[in-house]
Amino acid sequence: MAKAKVGVLISGRGSNMAALLYAAKHPSCPYEIVLVAANDPQAAGLTLATAEGVPTFAHSHKGMKRAEFDRIIDAQLRAAGAEYVALAGYMRLLSPEFVAGWENRMLNIHPSLLPKYKGLDTHQKALDAGDSHAGCSVHVVTSELDDGPVLAQTEVAILPGDTADSLAARILIAEHQLYSRTLADFVTRERQPEWLLARVRERALALPQADEVTSHGMPCFGIEKGKKFAYFSQDHHGDGIVSVLVKTTAPEEQAMLIDSDPDRYYRPAYFGDGWVGIRLDLGDTDWDQIEDRLRKSWREVAPRKLLGLMDVADEF
Ligand code: GRF
């Protein structure tokens, strides 16, 4: 399977970047680092990345507007083919445009147990508060500083006599372990059945009077006490794929869809011509389209009364 392409942004030492980069050298690592970029041409991490054969880019942000600078970094990331961004000690606030352009594709590591101690001086804050544990968090980046959904954390015990420096040094060891693992999970989650099922479930159950049951061992969505409109299929009869099965709206539609994209659509065994399978494990699923197909499938089985309600809702 192709490795996910990650761009790393740094401002200084770059030890987390190094940890990501060394983890990426293992053949089983699901990501590769395609660019290390810095807002400070003197950032020490750049030398290491260059020595390891990773392309680098550096540009000082001094005297530039935030959005203007971010556009330069964004262009470099995209030119390098990055699909994800990992912030690793990147000491710049990001413009909303940049954050929006990498929505759900950008992670950060922060040296505290978020939501505690956002911003700077996190180690001293944990000591001052008399906490028994400090730690680090990896989170998805949103427009609020250090605020996006936390993906993983490691607790680090505070020792008697710890100073901010001694604590920071120990947390850094934990950071290096945590970041690469979390990034690896993050870039592969779009192929993980549990994550795919959660996304299908969220969309299917949002439809009027939809419920979930298990049928033939498959999570299956239908109208309460009525017909089924979607099945979540995972390695069904050993086919090795993850997909959603939905009803087609016309007899020819199944053939037409398969014809248009034979890698994605297929005729589900034992379901007949009225259904089509859509693979979800190709890594490029268009979730708006899945939502649309679920809705169409729901319409195929919904009783008239419900359909009328849906039509009224659609007008708004
Ligand atoms: C790390 O403590 C990281 O959690 C924080 O900035 C520091 C960067 O260190 N965001 P390095 O440049 O990765 O060595």
Automatic annotation (TrEMBL):
Q: List positions binding N(1)-(5-phospho-beta-D-ribosyl)glycinamide.
A: G14, S15, N16
* Active-site residues, record numbering mapped to chain: H110 (proton donor)
Q: Which residues form the Formyl transferase N-terminal domain?
A: 5-183
Q: Which residues bind (6R)-10-formyltetrahydrofolate?
A: R66, M91, R92, L93, L94, N108
Q: Which reaction does it catalyse?
A: N(1)-(5-phospho-beta-D-ribosyl)glycinamide + (6R)-10-formyltetrahydrofolate = N(2)-formyl-N(1)-(5-phospho-beta-D-ribosyl)glycinamide + (6S)-5,6,7,8-tetrahydrofolate + H(+)
Q: What keywords is this UniProt entry annotated with?
A: Purine biosynthesis, Transferase
What's the protein called, per UniProt?
A: Phosphoribosylglycinamide formyltransferase
Organism of derivation: Sphingobium quisquiliarum P25
Lineage at the top is: Bacteria, Pseudomonadati, Pseudomonadota, Alphaproteobacteria, Sphingomonadales
Q: Its gene?
A: purN
